Amino acid sequence: MLDLAHLLEVLAPADADTSWMRFSEYMAHFGVDRLILYDVRGASPKIRTNMGHDWVAHYMAQGYARIDPFYEHCMTPGRSMPTGAAHLAALRHLDPRQQRLIEEAGEAGFHSGFSLMLPGQPGVAWNIGSGLQPEALARLRLALGESLPLALRLLQMRLDAPPPLTAREAEVLEWLAEGLRTKEIAHRMAITPVTVELHLRSARTKLGARTRDQALLQAVLRGMVRPYGRPGRG
Asked: pTM for the whole thing?
């Protein structure tokens, strides 16, 4: 249902905030119009959401960041929990302020949702929400299937961007995408093969890749180079 190739184009080279905005708009077309990303990898928890500036300001002013039940109940790897105001009847064990947080989020459009932690990303969790009824959201989640976590992982890669590639590093990877070998790339760029290897090594280090092919894949998925090589070529 989600076209990941199209999503790559939607997210094409952009900063983290622009990628988030484009992703939010893209997912809203499918009925997933409330997204909250929780990140506890640093010294203090962080959230990113498309709930709107007024909601974020209210969330912070009320001190909800300190009592948000999501941190305690929804950040267990491999376990997805129902979230949102539609499920409040089953959440009466929560503190009254926590229940009020969920009620107010519902008034802001987060009616039903579910938590999701992606494998291999400890400390990061998604609260996927919608204005839909729980039954409708469950059907939508089933229809999206594995494309949803793949799309979330793709966005996460854009948000956790590594240091930028230099123009020469990006060019080497784009020629690599054309299928050229080291000597051919060196000839096209009018540099030595050793310099090509140095650019590739630097790109691998920045991208956390073990091979040049892994570096190319990472760079493409992160929108750092064109997926089809140099412009103006077939």
From this structure: 0.76
